[in-house]
Design brief:
The structure holds two protein chains of two kinds. By secondary structure, chain A is mostly helical. Chain A has a domain at 277-496. Chain A is built from 20 helices and two strands. Chain A has helices spanning 5-22, 26-54, 76-103, 109-128, 132-151, 157-187, 192-202, 206-223, 232-238, 241-266, 269-275, 278-298, 303-324, 327-358, 369-372, 374-388, 394-409, 412-438, 453-471, 474-489; strands spanning 57-60, 71-74. Chain A has a two-stranded antiparallel ribbon. In chain A, helix 1 packs antiparallel against helix 2 (26-54), helix 3 runs antiparallel to helix 10 (241-266) and helix 13 packs antiparallel against helix 18. The longest helix of chain A is centred in the last third of the chain and has 32 residues, at 327-358. Chain A is globular. Chain B has one domain (7-49, 71-121): Helix Hairpins. Chain B is 69% helix and 0% strand. Chain B is built from four helices and no strands. Chain B has helices at residues 6-24, 28-50, 71-101, 106-122. In chain B, helix 1 packs antiparallel against helix 2 (28-50) and helix 2 runs antiparallel to helix 3 (71-101). Chain B starts with 5 loop residues before the first helix and ends in an 8-residue tail after the last helix. The chains are: A mainly alpha, B mainly alpha. The A-B interface holds A 133, 136-137, 140, 144, 147-148, 151, 154-157, 159-160, 162-163, 166-167, 170-171, 173-174, 177-178, 181, 184-185, 237-238, 302, 304, 359-362, 364-365, 444 and B 19, 22, 28, 31, 35, 38-39, 42, 45-46, 49, 72, 75, 78-79, 82, 85-86, 89-90, 93-94, 96-97, 100-101, 109, 113, 116, 120, 124-126, 128-130.
């Protein structure tokens, strides 16, 4: 059983999805989906433990040897990602039944859970696999189901957002497909480890440069890195609350994982960062992302949109950490993946709770909610502080590592710009807090009471995690550090 | 040179035509057509790559030592399935958009979105879920 964990990680939600059709009652489907997601969480926890104890886990599908057959390969990096994705999925799903009762028509509930589990399957598959073409297939499984999930939003603009996302997402995926094709043409292999071994021989050819360009551009489209972020704000804003919480906490993380995997493991850090000017490019785009995202967030009147734009800024922080290409920088980026999932998961779930009670997330509707929904608003406050990077929250830990990585390299101006970026975060978080706590409530909202427990439990679990991992950083930092060290070690940049 | 790379020229031309249609046309169906052409060019690219000079179909036979590479064909079968799913989903979304906006022109949809956003400020925000 334990030997088959890697495949179970994907198979459990994949089988779970169609089984949902057989269960007729909505509550039953929800419970079933929750169990399935919980099982994949247990699997990923066991896998991470196995990886930390005894090193990389390799699983050959159908018993075919690696370069020919598909291989699942779990090292510290994707073990960590698997844990984040399955944990977030389970927590978000906990609130799903209550939330979608108000946002999605009853006859579509079963479909919602099927799509949700398929999307989860795709994301876990992308992360778990060690085969480049398999990445494309799983990526499309998760993308196609998330387009449909977004289109479930009750505003008609959700349809338009889903359509735009579909067009851009498909272009991105096709770019990745072209890149993988070019790599295959040069090396005759699709296995990532094998590619990594064979690419250096042909690294100086135009074909490999082109392959790299296609793969990275495709991934950045999925990642919503500025300026390829145009699909993200509307998709997050008009999707049902649960879908937003789920996608914000997981989907961009998966794309970011691919970015790291392809640049460091497949093409190799020295090719990506020495032969090509990736460092400068990504640092600039990351900084632009931070400023454009944060400034746009300040001017929004829809709170969901505020945090959607803030996601673009947060992706900027991750990309900067990634572009430093030192152990500390990469640790900061990986930590920020984890932390951002905790913050945005809590924030979007809290917005889901507001949506549940008020039916709107326009900022003027938040007046007086500090008294009426104290627990939900306190959660937004704490997660918001974490987003800013206050000490004793997780946001502080990743920003601290990011700044020390920049200072290590002597890049003071970038460090300064990042601090200014954090101040912009303060502006839009304060805007919400001010309205929620210091304005009298609207007469139309006078009957509004605290959100139901189905929301409060996952929200507060996430908030407590936000504080816990901000104080006791051992687990998250240790894993992130070990993962980035092993990534760079493979490049010979760090001696073991 | 030109003839030797004939397939690849076609791939590039189709790819650019497809991408251009996606970007330049405002009609949602035409965008989907462009997207499909774009994807198809990649299929041709993979299939061309599989051809081995003097190779025959990859079926084991006596007296034959050169075979074409079957793997890209298999990959593309998968990619075709993905492509069909994408097209189907895009068409389904277009139908829903047509029902909701009574238009499948990008410009008109965006105008209606803008109107919806500005009307929202004047009316009681509770009339509009967003």
């Amino acid at each position: 059983m334990l030997a088959h964990l890697p495949i179970l990680q994907v198979i459990v939600p994949l089988i779970g999805a169609p089984v949902c059709v057989l269960l007729s009652r909505a509550r039953l489907v929800w419970l079933f989906a929750l169990i399935v997601s919980g099982l994949s969480f247990i699997v990923s926890a066991l896998l991470l433990q196995q990886v930390l104890m005894s090193g990389t886990v390799i699983y050959e599908l159908g018993g075919w040897d690696a370069p020919w057959g598909i291989e699942y390969r779990i090292d510290k990096l994707n073990g960590f990602l698997l844990l984040i994705i399955s944990a977030m999925s389970t927590l978000v799903l906990f609130a799903a039944q209550t939330s979608i009762n108000k946002e999605i028509p009853a006859e579509k509930h079963t479909h919602f859970y099927i799509l949700y589990l398929l999307s989860l399957t795709g994301m876990l598959g992308v992360v778990v696999t060690g085969d480049a073409f398999n990445v494309f297939v799983f990526l499309e499984i998760s993308s196609l189901s998330s387009y449909a999930l977004i289109a479930l939003g009750k505003d008609r603009r959700a349809l338009w957002a889903a359509y735009q996302y579909l067009i851009l997402g498909t272009i991105g995926a096709t770019f990745i497909l072209i890149g993988i094709g070019l790599m295959y043409q040069m090396t005759g292999t699709l296995n990532m480890a094998d590619l990594a071994a064979r690419l250096p021989e042909v690294a100086q050819t135009k074909t490999v440069f082109t392959a790299f360009a296609f793969v990275i551009t495709g991934i950045c489209l999925k990642l919503a890195l500025f300026p390829l972020h145009l699909w993200l704000p509307n998709a997050y804003t008009y999707a049902p609350s649960i879908v937003t919480a789920f996608l914000a906490a997981t989907a961009t993380k998966v794309a970011f994982y691919l970015l790291i995997r392809f640049t460091y493991s497949v093409f190799g850090g020295s090719f990506s960062f020495t032969t090509l000017p990736l460092q400068f490019l990504f640092m600039t785009l990351g900084l632009l992302g931070i400023f454009v995202g944060s400034i746009a967030a300040i001017y929004q009147t829809n709170v969901k949109q505020i945090f959607a734009y803030s996601s673009i800024a947060q992706i900027g922080y991750m990309v900067i950490g990634f572009s430093i290409s030192s152990v500390t920088g990469l640790t900061a980026a990986l930590l920020h993946i984890f932390n951002h999932a905790l913050m945005k998961g809590a924030l979007f779930l809290a917005l889901g709770a507001v949506m549940y009670r008020i039916g709107s997330v326009q900022i003027n509707q938040f007046q007086g909610l500090g008294q009426q929904m104290p627990l939900t608003m306190a959660a937004i406050l704490v997660a918001g502080l974490s987003l800013i990077g206050m000490p004793l929250t997780v946001g502080f830990v990743s920003k601290w590592y990011l700044l020390s990585a920049l200072i290590e390299k002597g890049w003071w101006p970038v460090a300064l710009l990042i601090l200014i970026g954090s101040l912009l975060t303060l502006v839009y978080v304060w805007k919400i807090v001010e309205i929620a706590y210091f304005k009298p409530s609207l007469s139309t909202n006078s009957t509004v009471i605290e959100a139901p427990l189905a929301f409060l439990i996952p929200i507060w679990l996430l908030v407590i995690a936000n504080i816990y991992f901000g104080v006791d950083t051992r687990l998250s930092v240790e894993v992130a550090h070990a993962a980035s060290e092993s990534l760079l070690q493979a490049q010979g940049q760090v001696r073991p | 040179m030109l003839m030797g790379l004939f397939n690849y020229w076609i791939v590039v031309v189709l790819m650019m035509i497809g991408l251009y249609i996606v970007i330049a046309h405002g009609n949602l169906i035409k965008k989907i057509v462009g997207l499909t052409i774009f994807q198809t060019s990649v299929f041709i690219f993979y299939i061309s790559m599989a051809k081995v000079d003097g190779g025959t179909a990859p079926i084991l036979m006596a007296n034959v030592s050169q075979y074409a590479n079957p793997l890209p064909h298999v990959l593309i079968l998968t990619a075709i399935v993905v492509g069909i799913a994408t097209t189907a989903l895009a068409l389904a979304l277009t139908i829903r958009i047509k029902e909701a906006y009574n238009s499948i022109e990008e410009e008109s949809i965006q105008q209606q979105n803008k109107k919806q956003a500005s009307v929202r400020d004047e009316l009681d925000p509770r009339n509009d879920p967003y």
